[in-house]
């Protein structure tokens, strides 16, 4: 019961400035060791829309902070999002998800559906910009909404 309560009140603020500050602190204080960022993501309710714009914004801001720290000389070697697929989360089971892909647990084949964040991340990895003036979120959102069938846009 406590874990259920804890999961319901845990909301993680988006603080990209803090990530950049930590990377630059390690650079100055510890001689710039190689750094890897892992399990970076945005918690969202499962069985909701595939248009996870808050997660896209979170990814954009955190990756932007990592890029800024790299420009300032940080030896950051990697950034890994949490997670590729919606999986069982320790604090709230299958009630929330961090995945770039929605997994339909009611389907015996466990069909996977890409969320907007999967499209954005793919676009970024192929050389897309993360800047707020790039328009990439809006463009990818439009492209995504025209490519997804109405049944896929909202998972019930």
UniProtKB/TrEMBL annotation:
For this protein, the record's Gene3D superfamilies field holds: Glycosidases
The record ties this protein, via Pfam families, to: Glyco_hydro_1 (PF00232)
GO molecular-function term, one example from the UniProt record: beta-glucosidase activity
| Family designation | Belongs to the glycosyl hydrolase 1 family.
Swiss-Prot/TrEMBL GO biological process terms: carbohydrate metabolic process
The scientific name of the source species is Punica granatum (Pomegranate)
What's the protein called, per UniProt? Uncharacterized protein
UniProt feature coiled coil, ranges? none
What the entry lists under InterPro entries is as follows: GH, Glyco_hydro_1
Bilayer-crossing residues are: none
Identify the taxonomic lineage of the organism of origin: Eukaryota, Viridiplantae, Streptophyta, Embryophyta, Tracheophyta
- Highest taxon of source: Eukaryota
């Amino acid at each position: 019961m406590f874990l259920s309560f804890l999961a319901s009140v845990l909301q993680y603020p988006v603080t990209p400035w803090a990530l950049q500050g930590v990377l630059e602190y390690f650079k100055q204080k510890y001689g710039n060791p190689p750094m890897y960022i892992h399990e970076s993501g945005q918690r969202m309710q499962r069985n909701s829309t595939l248009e996870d714009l808050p997660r896209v914004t979170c990814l954009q801001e955190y990756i932007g902070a990592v890029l800024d720290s790299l420009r300032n000389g940080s030896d950051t070697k990697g950034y890994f999002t949490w997670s590729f697929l919606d999986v069982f989360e320790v604090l709230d089971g299958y009630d929330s998800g961090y995945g770039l892909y929605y997994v339909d647990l009611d389907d015996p084949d466990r069909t996977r559906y890409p969320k907007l964040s999967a499209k954005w991340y793919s676009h970024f990895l192929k050389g897309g910009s993360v800047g707020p003036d790039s328009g990439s979120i809006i463009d990818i959102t439009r492209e995504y909404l025209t490519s997804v069938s109405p049944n896929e846009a909202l998972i019930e």
